[in-house]
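Quick one: examine the sequence and fold tokens given here and explain what the tokens say about the fold. Here goes:
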Amino acid sequence: MNGFGLFDPAIAQPLLAGWIIGAVVGLIDTAVVVIAVARAPRWPEQFSQFHVSLPALAIAAANGMVIGWTLIGLVIGALSIIVPMPKFAIGTAAVVLGILGLYVYIRGLSHRGEAQVVVGTGLVAGIGFAVVLPLLAAWR
């Protein structure tokens, strides 16, 4: 008997899918944030008191976002074990769209760079967790 017989695929697959999707969302989110910061006309002035270069900021952002989104992915993967699949996908999409709608209602889209980052991150996370995670979790 190998060690893989100890894992129930019904539990391991959603957790692995959440882990993978969380890491991918973290990498994509890092790229979105770094590109938005690099395109901002005032980013050198905003970070000058910290004496931070763009590559150093990118490294810190990549580590923080990948770890954070991976943890969120594991939690959402565990949640997908508990909630039946059509209800999970619809609920995840509704939560993401609700958060994005609340952001747009409160902040608006006038803060162009910030809005691009928030909406882009929300859409990537929504597609990843509501569409791709169920597909990966059900893949055999």
In short: Helices lie at 9-39, 43-46, 54-82, 85-107, 112-138.
